[in-house]
Amino acid sequence: MTTLATRPDLAPAPSTPGPSRPPGRVRIHRALVRATVTLIVVAQVYPLVWIFISSVRTPQDFAGGDPFAIPTDITFDNYARAFDVGNLGLNMVNSLVVTLGSSALIVLLGMMAAFALQVLGFRFSGLVRGMFLMGIIVPVQIALVPLFIDYSRIGLLDTYASMIIPLAGFSLPMAIYLFSSFYEYIPRETYEAASLDGAGPYRIFAQITLPLSLNTIVTVVMVNSIFIWNDFIFANTFVLSDDLKTVPLGLQNYIGAMGNVDWTATFAAVCVSITPLLLIFLVLNKAMIQGLESGATKG
């Protein structure tokens, strides 16, 4: 007698389990994470939106109404006044020169120092690396007076170099640390094979280390450009003329007599000054992700 147990074709099909639902604790955790991320995004985006809205309000509307309300009249004259009164265009050019010059020095010197310490190696290289890293904990304020005295003696006051040199110097320890950490993941066999082919240290640095370091270069430039563009302490100490004022110093030009501030023009100037930072962040953020992926594949 044939039964269902001996007839596979008549046996009931096994039941497929339905989609598993996460337990209640996991759902609560996800909801808390989403709520936290939403609050962080709102806290980061709201000031930018408020500054832009305030920059298109009329001075009378901003002074007489609620500064957090939706503007009744929209005007773009504040942007024209920001460039005319505050000399914003020249300030942005000065900030661009200082940022590019400092970033170039940081990347060049940081890469070469990390290559010598991590790849080439020499006696007491660990001690030298530790001395560089100690520079991270040194506050910039203790160097203002000695640098001012030295600059006044050698004629570097009120120059681009007076801002570029200290900005690059105080950013070098972190750059050396980032480059050294990345060089640890490059296989030593790569350098040994290049040496057997007759490549010297300069060729190895230019043809092997430099192309593989693009992700770290982007990271270093991204981090330091934001702080250099917003630097106030070095520019305020070493710049004496209006022709070399950077954006943070230029914003002081909107303070009139008796402390009166042209707030709407100030907000317009802030919107214009932070636009390059936002563009750099968006562009270099994608480049950094691509660089990390290519670096991981090559390494």
From TrEMBL:
Assigned protein family: Belongs to the binding-protein-dependent transport system permease family.
Keyword Cell membrane part of the UniProt annotation: yes
Official protein name in the record: Carbohydrate ABC transporter permease
CDD domains, per the entry: TM_PBP2 (cd06261)
Ranges annotated as spanning the membrane: 31-53, 96-120, 132-149, 161-183, 204-229, 263-284
UniProt source species: Nocardioides eburneiflavus
Location relative to the cell: Cell membrane
Topology term for the membrane: Multi-pass membrane protein
